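ok so heres the complex, two chains, lmk if somethin looks off
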Amino acid sequence: MGIDRFLRVAGLRLRSVFRRGAVERELDEELQYHVEQQTAENVRNGMSPRDARNAALRAIGGLEFRKEQVRDTRGTRWLDEISSDLSFAFRSLRRAHGFTLAVVVTLALGIGANTAMFTLLRGTLLRPLPNREGDRLVYLRQSAPGSDQANISFSVPEVTDFRAEAKSLSSIAEYSQMVPFTIVGSDGHPARARVGVITGNYFDVLGLAPIAGRLTTPRDDGPDVPSVAVLSYRYWMDRFGGDPRIVGQTVRLNDRSSTIIGVLQPAPDYPRRTEIFVNMVTSPHHLSATMVTGRTHRMSELFARLAPTATVESARAEIDRISAAMMRDHPEAYEKAAKHSVALFPLRDALNERASATFWLLMGAATFVLLIACANVANLTLMRGVGREREMLVRAALGAGRARLRRLLIVENLTLATIGGVLGVLVSAAALKLLVAFAAQFSPRASEIRIDATVLAVGLATSVLAAILLSFMPRVSSDGALASALGASNGGRRITLGHGRQRVQQTLVIAQIAVCMILLTGAGLLMRTMMNLHSVDTGIQAEHVLTLELPLQGDLLKEVMKPENLGNYERMRDRVASLPGVDVAALGSAVPLRGSLDFEVKAENRETPPSRPTPRASVKLVDPKFFSAAGIPVLKGRAFESTDRRGSGLVVIISGAFAKQIFGDDDPIGKRIAWTGDVLRFTPFSGAWRTVVGVVGDTRDHGLDGDVTPSVYEPFAQEIVLGGALIVRTASDPAAMQQSVVRAIRDVAPAQLIEHVATFDQIRDEAVAPRRLNAMFISSFGALALVIAMVGIAGVLAFAVTSRTSEIGIRMSLGADAGRVRRMILSEGGVLLGIGVALGLAGALFAARLLRGMLFGVSPHDPLTLTGVAVMLAAVGVAACWLPAARAARVDPAIALRAE
Amino acid sequence: MSKPNDLVQGTLDLLILKMLALEPMNGWSIGQRLKQLSADILQVSDGSLYPALHKLEQEGWVTAEWRQSENNRRAKFYSLTRAGQKQLKIEAGNWDRLATAITALVRLQEV
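and the predicted structre for the whole thing:
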């Protein structure tokens, strides 16, 4: 097509759209001119003026018809029609506002739930990692399942072996995190920061870029380089307000000054949240001989990039080979019974480890909700479609083509679905904050969750798909059906469905109930899990206890040795204890229920059989009142006394389960135990024998669903002070005491860091928060599904009652009483309910197995939950059927029959 | 009598293009002229002329402007565009080939 012709054609098209009035007037005038000319001609040929004009009009063959033909030539007809379809859709939807509201709300909820879950899924699981070639990154994890350790990380000699021998890994980076560092910036106030100690190649291996300054390189490795620090994006924003001038400034990290060289791009925190990355020289411990040569001094997490030709499988095989050789060559570092093993995962899988199952489960649940919503809307549309069949027939009779009618429906449904979809997206946008907080419990990538173009596109696509599906529900009559349909309806109100359609409708209701049953079973199982968790005995008395962490500042390995620590902590404790409203204040190295470090333990004159791993126990330093403050019962022997101090005989108290583990049924009091193992060398703890003076109750430090934590308590005042925590038992609400407790500590130690102020109840709550959120989401999906499904079944029955009014009238005039009619309708609903529940039960038995990993203390096929949900669903279902049944029972036979 | 749909498909377009190649004309004159020139053999229905004209216009073969007609009335006058002249050549060629072929077939001696 030549350019001039193209422009001419385009101009004409635009004109016919935008100057429609003018174009139409010209057409009128043109045809008018023709008619006048022809009339004049006819008059000249001897006709009367009136005949002449009629003949002229006849010759043209119908003015309006010709105009339509002309309009067709413009190729813009569909546009006119769409806009008239749209305005028609709006008008007809406004008229049927009950229907419109039901459909829009149902779709909004369905699409909203899906969009929200998809947003979650995309942000965390589906989007490629922000790292360059992120799919080539792998993460290595050493575990010792035999001694119950899921991640023991790697020692420097192990890393050296991997570096030397693993050809399938092009480079290996190390990352380790110890206790938080103390950072002092230009403002002079100390604060604690989570510091990751890394090798210089860390960022290069991980494929991350700076957004300000530079990142570390291998030149930053070794003992004789300046200390440098890289800030994480979040820390930079939170603490330094995103000020780029921070680059080049000096901060104090523990007792060393370090230059901030750059800021890292936003990246997922893995394996732990990190605020500042520093090179090895910043942490003197990392370059010490104990660290560099100790094969059991495991501190490093390993990240690696696959070599160009390697695959995850080949790398895995090689790592297996190398670690088998290590264990053979250094049997002293790999206790047989601990069953050391090294696993290699793609980094993405490692990041998604905890999120994957949960998020896919929720996505599945949301999809179910959408399916129910669509089924419901389909049912509503079907019912409305019946009422409109006459309308459709009349339209067809007036010349609307089938395609045109179908399009009318599609436009109508698209309008509905789009409104629903937009509302849905708005709902999920409003819930975004909640979503991110939820996701953060499971995934280090939660901060990447946002509603982006893809999410919007998926939301839109879902709406459009739903609309198109719905448009094919009502019947659009074919030419042949017209006459017969009009004949059959005979001008009367024809509002019944054909048998096929009725079947479809009933199937939809059954499917809704079945899906509902599955969702509610999931919700029920998760709720029971929550109840079980809440009834778990943590081993402490949670009421009225406030806890505060009071960490040491600076380089911990040096700080713990300072003799004044003990006096400082005791002063803080005594000051708080003197506050009115405080019953007991006690000191511990850590807050109960929050984990602390653990060591291997040996008992005097008792050998661990070689088939069993050396027992391990958590080390806890506590003062005499600790057990009464925390509510941990003393089962045997005594609690610590103020005489258990430096210089007196070394004593310990052990937890009940641990006593059983090492001493069996023997009385542990008076027996002696000692810390043991290679790691001890790298710590300030001595391996001296200590006499057991007491046995106390067990606590669960690793979550409410974990096992009890084997623990060994040492007197706070006897050896070293690891750091402190205050356990304050109050007479009234502990949260209300918080301020006065903090003020009391500040009185005696103004510079003391105070962290994690929380009541026992809050700590306990943190442990179940992810599960509770999970249960909450699934339950709300279940509730949503229940409401939608109940509206569905009630709607279908109500419709059935309406369409059978005359039948019911006949039945009643033949002697059926109201109760009988009610029973008839109820039993019809009951059959649907029954089939739905039965199918749902089968589905739930299958689907609940997917939940297994998230349950606690309840089997996925828990008969109580299944029966409970089935009974509840049936009860709510019958209640929903009651309304239409009652209406049927109120039918007045005389009126019903007269209406016919 | 020859009705418009008796015309070979697309022939009306060709006839209109040819008429307009002679001089710009309004719709009514095109109809009249067709009757005269074909000695009333080709009677194009007045009605079908206009959809055809508009289609040609929308295709860009002809263009239209409003002018005073011979009897001093405003009328829509169509004229051929450059693209339309080319199109006329193509369609005339097509017609020639078709006519030749059909003539040859019709004149075959029956055995």
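quick notes: The beta strands of chain B are 25-26, 62-68, 74-80. thats all i got rn
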